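Cross-check.
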Amino acid sequence: MSTPLLRIARRFGPYLRGHRPLLSGAAAALVFSTAMRLLEPWPLALIIDGLVAGKPPALLASLEPMIALAVCAAAVIAIAALKAGSAYLSTIGFALAGNRILGRVRIDLFAHLQRLSLAFHHRARSGDLTLRLVNDVGMLKEAMVTALMPMSANLLILGGMLAVMLALNWQLALVAILPVPVLLLATVRRGRRIHEASRAQRKRDGAMASTAGEALAAIRTVQSLSLEPAIAKAIGASDQHSQQADVRAKRLSAGLERGVNLLVAVATALVLWQGTRQVLAGALSPGDLLVFVTYLKNSFRPVREYAKYASRLSKALAAGERIADVLDETPEITDRPDAIEAGRLKGAVRFRQVDFAYAAGGAKVLDGFELELRPGEHVALVGASGAGKSTIGSLLLRLYDPSAGAIEIDGHDLRELTVASLRRQVCLVPQDNLLFAATVRDNIALAALRPVGQEEVEQAARLANAHEFIMALPAGYDTVIGERGATLSGGQRQRISVARVALRDSAIVVLDEPTVGLDRDNERIVIDALRHLAQGRTTFTITHDPMLAADADRIVFLDGGRVVEQGAPAELIARGGRFAALWRGRRDEQAASGACDAL
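Predicted model, tokenized:
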């Protein structure tokens, strides 16, 4: 067994445990079907020996010739019916087991992908991961049902037929298996090359899916910059490479199949030559030779089936490796064995000498960062891009762990709390909101993590200043919005995001550039909604906008991952430092904009 196959067997073997009764029943039906296949040529052999050659076996010697013929004909029908019935049960049983097992694999793969840290998702490409989740699991399922199961049946047939052949005439059996070493060598060598070609094709398919997914997700940018020809060219190049790998795998598979057929023909010719000589010498009956040749034809079926399905099996093997690669990834953010449930938090937050870098040995984004918030306090994090503002929000949600130092909530180090219970208490209003192609009600209720009624949804929407525009939609709260909220304006999407957080009722809220890209009217409405949201909650507002920052109780100005100044908005403006310069610049900009509007 090859190393990739061993790896896949170890990885997916545990999934078989819950389906042992179904698999055992299907295997029993398969064994019975194999036994019927072994009996298939014997009625014809009995007729040839008993009625044609005139040497009836003891089983038919006492019967009239026509009765013996009728018995053999009935046996042919009975054997065929039993074989068909057991093969049907075996096929259905293995298909059901395959669907259930790989359905579970798909669910576990998706759950594992969601547990993996942001560092992994930043390295990986979403289109390739989607291909692994949907296409690779489907390919593994299809190969298991349509290729692997028939090959398993044929291996059983091979063992049974070789045993009968050796019992009938061991000298002739040895002649029959002479080409087997050559067959095995050719199959192993060619199979390895087919697998390499299939693995290359799956890699190309993943790259193509990623490019297509990225282009479609950013279709507005693609169209606005007239990038359609460049994207189409990239997709075409990936597709061409994928096709080349596919053709190479199919060419190798076709060559293997033709070679196997030739070697089987050589083995059949040798058996016919030697067997006929033994029949003429009286050492073997014509019926036994018929059984022997029939068994020989079926004995090589596993190798011929492998040659036939080599390309498909290799693709499935490559798909299984790609799934195993993801499942073998270890999440960087996990619960400690002694982690506790957070419970209802008050919202006291403290950063103690926190260092953080996105890559080991890379530049520090935070360097000895210190900050302490009282429960219910609203702090605005201000600074240039790359100062570490959004990183603070990510660390607070424990999307990453600090390289050094600690972050505490209500006196608990975040690593002492379970990840799920922590994230239930810390809510994010991101700059780019994720909305699904579902109703407005479902999009708001999604964050509650519990069943909620219409009254609660409306109350959250009113707090977010979203109720009026929602009621103006064609079906109100039952209006289905486009994927990613494409049918809503930026301000409307942001207000739905605020309503989500309001419904979640978290103790701590992180607002990450909540007004970026909004016009003045929408910005005013969203800021008003954010004021309502921040009441009674510990709030972090990450922003470049000094006007939005001035709504906070305290402003923390960051530079190089450190706090360079902090204090109440009026205090910092009066001090004339870096925030004051930023404030004056924005005030002058607004004054100039107002003058232009007046003109």
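The longest helix spans residues 228-280. The chain has two domains: 7-327, 349-598. Passed to J.P. for a second look.
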